[in-house]
Amino acid sequence: MMSERVGTILRSMWRRITQKLVNKLILLFTSVIILVVGSLTIISYQMIEKESVNHSIASTTNNLLLVNQNLEDYLEGMQQLALPQLRYNDIMNAIANENRDYASRMVIENYLRSMFYSRNDLEAIYLYVADRHQYYVVTRETYNITVRKGINTDIPKLPWYKEAMASTTNESFQSFVGSRSDMGYVAPKASFMAYHRVLRSIASRHPQAVLSFYYNTSAVDEIMQNIPLGKGDQLMLMSPKGVPFYVNSFPLYERMRDSGVLAQIGKGGSGRVTWSDSSGNQEYLVVYDAGEKDGWQLIKPIPYRQIYEAATTTRNWSYAIGALFLGVSIILVTLTSNAITRPLHKLSTQMKRFSTGDFGATAPVKGHDEIAYLSLHFNEMVQRTEELINERYRMKLVEKNAILKALEAEINPHFLYNALQAISTQALKREMFDMADMVDALAQTLRYSINGKDIVVAREELKHIERYIGLQKARFGARLRVEVVWEETLMELPVPRLSVQTLVENAIKHALEKVSSDILIVISAESSSTNATIAVRDNGPGISEDKLRMVLDSFHEKWEERESEHIGLKNLNTRLKLLYGDQAGLFILTDETGTEMRMQIPRGGSSHV
After folding, report:
1. DSSP one-letter code for 226
2. How far apart are CA 53 and CA 488, in angstroms?
3. Would the pLDDT of 522 be above 70?
4. Which of 84, 222, 259, 506 is at a distance of 20 to 30 A from 238, taking alpha carbons?
């Protein structure tokens, strides 16, 4: 019930809005503006959003690649520092004899000091003698760098120690992210990571000692110098085994680890994945890069909200500008629509007056647009209607006279035909047979001419041509010879009445009347799969080129511009076009041996009028 009531209210409001043209125009233009502005805003937002993602991926991937190169160089420096190289035998002898030879202890201490002095990113260096569980440590104390000695039997139990001993490269890396319970040594809190290196005897490959380097956080700055980290940016450094060595936010790392997204990253190359943080209700673009040499992984999770920030700002500004533009546009559209519809309203009012019979209704004409043109012609229509009404009575007065004139026009040809029949009868009584035949032929010709049919069969037209030729022979005698080559199958061909006579009459006029010799006129007909062609040929002198051009040009003249000299052929060509369309027409072929006129009509000769 409620939905029906709401629907009724909405339909009623829609009818009230759309019952006026001005409201329809405002609604139309407003819809177009909203559609255009909304579409452009959405398209631009999607393009900027896509471009922001691509830019973030490209820039972050390049930055991670540079950082990974720094990391590999840094790790290579660690490895080079941990190898005694040329002093390897001296160091190994000193480690073997340090418990009973003071000089050996001095060699070890000086070796540790020299390594510690060589770098600024070291917090401490430990040398653990495996067989005696003794260690030497060099650290930076208050005023100087000292070397101390101690004993620790728990070192061999620690994971990093076991890993270094089992490693084929005699090394292990220790992370200080998270718990520090398995450190073994008391490392400074500012330590970034530890690197442990096993020193083995060259001869027996027995482990003699383990060197442990503890690097401070300045190492992070050196490694990360090529990647900008703004406020809220996150970065993770993972070992090839997936152990975190550096994270901005440990809780974020734990959520990524627990969700399994870190397992999707892989062991080599670069790429990206999308991760949804269910606890933080946020979606991240996780871009990663793994070093080609050691496989250390740099992972940077970027919130999509941060990536889309520029696109969101642009979208909000577009909506604000679009709303302002829409408000201004509605005002302009309202003013324009009223300017358009006001003259139409006035014109509509005058039309209502005119429909009630008020012929004094006139609409104001302002400007030169289509509405002014319509108003002007409405005024002319009103004036013309009034004039026509005034003339109506005068037309009724002459209507009877017009009817009488029409009857008279119909009676006169019949009167003439009857008079010719009377003359023929008197000629027969006086045995003037030639005169009677001529009068009878003229009477039959007149009767055929006033026949109301426009299309006749070829048999009737040829019968008429026979009478017409008989009359012409009375004038020209034996000089006029006519042959008819017409198949019996084409005797029922429908043709326009008096069409063949027009062609024969033209042949007599332009051939027989121009010369003193005999003229042969051949009337023929042939039929193809699509057309029927009727030809009238004479062996006269032909038509000159200029004369032929004038005749053909007259076929294309307007009816009002026709000339009387060529009116017969032009009328016939026009009749053919009107009766049968553009497929029909009249064609003229002429040379010094004579002239042939062809009348072409569609096969069957059926009229389309």
Report:
1. G
2. 89
3. yes
4. 84
